[in-house]
Amino acid sequence: MRFTRTDTVFTLLALATLAGWWLGEGAAVRGQRLGGVTTLAVLALAAFKGVLIALDYMELRSAPALWRRLVLGWLAVMLGLIALFSLLSRG
Question: Which site from 1, 76, 80, 82 is most exposed, i.e. has the minimal number of CB atoms within 10 Å?
């Protein structure tokens, strides 16, 4: 059996989802909030997943550069704002 790029991307997305769940669930089980490093790790996983979805499932890998930049830029801005507000709310 030969794995296609779609199979690889799906596997990576599933593993990243499990890793994010494990990180978030660990804090919930202890009744705590996510720490700063853990929050950034979960957001990094979300960024990784977002890029894979945009490039491979939304087929932006072969789209004009403007569309790729717009979608990935939007993703970066949203995740940056979430990280900023999450870290600011701790203080």
Answer: 1
35: left (phi over 0), alpha (psi -120 to 50) or beta: beta
pLDDT, residue 91, reads 61
- For residues 37-42, give the mean pLDDT: 87
In angstroms, rounded to a whole number, what is the distance separating the alpha carbons of residues 41 and 19?
10
Residue recorded with tokens 């990180």: 23
Length of the chain: 91
| pTM for the predicted model, two decimal places | 0.85
CB 83 within 8 A of CB 39: yes
Residue (of 71, 61, 70, 66) closest to 5 by Cα position = 61
State how far the Cα of 18 lies from the Cα of 37, in Å rounded to an integer: 18
* Tens-place pLDDT, residues 80-90: 999 999 888 87
Chain-centroid distance of CA 63 in Å reads 21
